[in-house]
Amino acid sequence: MAVSIVQLGSPRRRGEGLRLGTVRRPPRGVRKSDYGSRNFYDVWLPALSPSAALVRQARISADAAGWSRFVRRFVAELKDPGASQLLDLLAQLSHVADFSVGCYCDDERRCHRSVLRAELEKRGAAIRGDIATGV
After folding, report:
1. pTM for the full model?
2. CA distance 128 to 30
3. pLDDT in tens, 10-38
């Protein structure tokens, strides 16, 4: 049993389980009834996505310093009791169920899901794959 960190919209891997979309907005141009069948997500969990203001700031500053600021600010947002409790829950669930969390970004290393991975690891989550390979 473990949590997988995935790119939403990518083909599902064996044993991945239920997909949780940790994104601020649903996929554009896709009917709600098709989110799961088109490999986006089964359950939308926007509470674990960066705030709209933080996403705007991250898009403006694409350099290393901007990324570091984004990570610090997103970690601060995840300290909100609702987000923190969700992370605690997911970390515990990872020991008894297979599921995945994801975002649309191509490169996990420059995506908020890398921060979610780190936060879940801090909470003792069982995580499948690594950031470099995703396998």
Report:
1. 0.92
2. 28
3. 999 998 999 999 999 999 999 999 999 99
